[in-house]
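Quick one: examine this chain and its backbone structure tokens and tell me how the chain folds. Here goes:
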Amino acid sequence: MWDGGCACDRHHRSSHVDGGGCCGNAGHFTIPYGTLSVPAIPRHAYVPTAKLSAAAPPPGTLGMTYKRPSRLISEKKHLRVGMLDVKGAPFDAVVSVRGLKGYRDIEGVWRFEPNLPLVPGIPHIYTVKIETGYASGLLHTDVRKVRLIPGRIVELVYP
């Protein structure tokens, strides 16, 4: 009686031979696994996989995430909300972060927050654009990359 057999023997169960070849494939053996037999993988069938290098993150984020000063968010916020404070920007500066809503508070600190909590497993890297020189007419744009941490307020100090 057929006991589960090997994968190549499913369509012609009567030709199954334990310990020998089946379907004309010499050296194909089955290993008992409970009431079923699981096909063994011969050594010559192993194909080494190529090492895939991960895509490099934007410069200035990897290794800098947990070196930046940060603090816990308020207990009133969701646990996975990540926030950003930009300190030290000049008075005439306009700070913007695509994908985050923000405002400038009384102390001159720009505060940014996403609309929804951060999704686990996705690197939340944002581009902070600081534009200065509106008053003098000489516009200067500075760009920084920041990775948000769920449950923390990351501080970016400008200059």
Q: What stands out?
A: The two ends are 79 Å apart (CA to CA). Strands lie at 30-33, 36-39, 70-72, 83-87, 94-97, 101-104, 110-113, 125-132, 140-147, 152-157.
